[in-house]
Batch of 3 targets.
Target 1
Amino acid sequence: MLIEINEEGKGEIEILQSIPKDFENYLISPARPVAIKGDHFKGLFQEFKGVGFSVWYSRYWMESPAILCARGGIPVLELRIALKNQIRGKWEKISNPELPVNHFQMGFVPYIITRAIFEAPLEYETFDIHFELPLLEEIGIDYKTLTHFLNLVYKDKPAELSKRPHPCSGFMMDSVNAILHNTYTLAGKARLLRNNVINILTGALEEAGKGEIGNLPLSVADIDALYHVRELIEFYCPVYPGNDVLITKARGVLNAFKLSYGFKRLFGVNPYDYYLERRFILAKDLLRKGNRVVSVANELEYESSTTFIKAFRKRFRQTPKQYQKNGG
């Protein structure tokens, strides 16, 4: 980590060179973990690295109230989400840094000076995405709120996407949970990470610019490309090809924003949720035909039959065996 952390009134906190055993149950593959410990608290930061971004999932276990201060000479373009309990405090040049649980804010600072106030002996969790500027430009959303924000970033000036925190949509929170709790292979995790980071970003930009974005038009070419994307998802099922592949094959007219926002406007769900619907339709069809559960799990490329059973039960409130027994 390219920052130094201090506990106010007690001095610098050591960033541990190895992960203590009592953290091992909290580690998430393939994230890179970093741990800190103080007299009455401990913290674990886990970084998921992708092309154009890095995700930081941070957890703090506080035995008593404390104030942690961080300082670093690096610019940060960040989307912040509070997951568990509210951390109060200050973020240099950002007017409203405090986030209620399940709310987000997006900001830019040319350097880091923060003061995080943990008021109670609780567990706190945050989920932060650090972006490289080209990825934001690649998304392709063009509206005044974002343009004003990016103009300040180009000038290396502190900026906030909006003056108040916004509640995270269910779509955004589902994407956060998909990153933190999945049983994919390493290759699958990498694809899932990028897809869901883009989903979170586009969801946040839609929410912050809701008044403007609702009026953005979809051209005939956009609509034609989105119908083609739906066909591609059905063709590739049971594998999700990834948003980048869908954009590349979408006849040269879609970007990440139009893929997410336009697909949802036309079909009522985002592309990944549509893929999940098709995957479960295929699962039901295979089960009705009498295929063994383990065979269906393999056919749908689940990591294991246990993973498939859990996913099926969560969605339909019965196991695949029960579904077969009840005649589908």
Target 2
Amino acid sequence: MAAPTLDLRDPTFGLRLMVHEARAQQGPSRELRDLRDAWLLHDPVDPEPFWNRLIGPRWPADHAAFDRRLDEAITLFATIDRIPHVRPLPIGGGPADLTSRLIAAGFARVGADQRMALADPSTCLEIARRHAERPSTHVSVERHPAQSSSLDRRWAVDASLTLAEAFDVDPIRRAALEADVLACVARPGCSILLLRDDGDGVSLARRATVAGGSYLSSIGTRPGWRGRGYATLVTALAVAEALEAGSEFVHLAVEIDNEVARRFYERLGFAVVGDPVPDLLLR
């Protein structure tokens, strides 16, 4: 159940992570299209830029050829009635100054994250093993969809509350969070791990295992329960289950300014892959 050795400096691995994240986020109507020198994730229903993005351009360095390819990409977004949104690769994209060229062309950086991949699974596997051998009397872990039923979806209410408080989401978006976790467990390969303390939902992790890998997201703990190792436990369990499912790689993303989270994942065996990945939107 150990993850194979990965070359975190391999440009093809950087592309694989970015495309895999998009595959993990595909829904019934969300499309992922191979454009040969980039990938397009497109949601025909939801105009949210996050669901409509050009992933990992590998365009020519020649300025005239680059400008032609950029014009074609902008036209493509116009045909699908979406804001042009580009996410470069953490390693191996092109040209080397892609971000600065896009900014010069009118794109704005609206965020950035760091890609991380599991390099050493030993810590997570040991935490998961200890939890299985010495379960807590007051801490339990629910796995959905395994424990879900069409008749009892109260767990989704608790999961949405956990996410709302962990990530300081506006209460009016609670219903959207509930719908989101239910949509996750309805997709093949997507699961939610909800950790409870004396019955209260307190920590959560989402795992999407598709196409030979696992993407982890929505890892968080409600403020009143932080500092008790719950995020560590739920992350370790998600990793262990990803490897048990046969994942060749496990990865996640961390906001570029969240050094606490980056160090947390490094202690659990994750390593940074390449450079920060900016979100670039045409303004």
Target 3
Amino acid sequence: MSDDPILRALAKCNPNEALKPTDERFVDLDDLRGTPLRKVLVKLLLASDSVENYAKVAVVGHRGSGKSTELNRASVDIQARGYETLWASVNENLDPREISFSDIVRLMVLLLDDRFGQETHNHPPIKQAFDNVLDWFKEVSKTFTKEIDSAKELGMKARIGGPASASGLLVKTELGELSAAISVVRRSEGKERTEIRETFERYNNQLVDNLNSLIRAITEICCPGKSLVIILDNVDKYEPKVVNDAFLRNSELLREVDCHLAIYDSVLAFV
């Protein structure tokens, strides 16, 4: 190890690493930046709640400007306000090269499964919602049964209530297992990668309806009186065209999701 303190400091600093709220390396620059992002985000959420609406917020900034670090700090403030917060790094949980709208919806389904899937054993309405969405996913993906079964066995080896799936989230239900297996197929190099995306995106409206049915069942029982906030980080790791196709072209559908949604990127610009 070099005795040069600057070289030692550089060795400990990874510009791609988002700092946790308690990280001793964090330097508070709120006075220079102006109103902290976390306060703006909380204000937007409270304003939307006051009119019984859901905020859809895109946080933009240059890559490496500290968006994810601010996100981590904002998450603490949001939860302290009584919100139920789910967080995912998009590029780590989905294909790091390309994503689609259906991938984003499935990631949100996986987040719900990871946090609330165990409740299907305790609450019949939640189990019924998961089963209904599972039946729909099975019907739409039935022509890819061979590829999905192979993904379950070879790609992620997921079991109900078992280890983390290929998405990086814990699989709790059969719906979570199927959703994670589709993510494996979407990472493959075969023609099925595109075909399964095209198949699901014929039903984008139904995808949102399915997601909303899960959110409603979960929030009514597990989070009474609270609003759910889903935070999607690291969208800026994708090319602008990919982001445009996955998010901007489907912004109206995203607005219909029955929870608050915050997306962290460098090119998005819708609320």
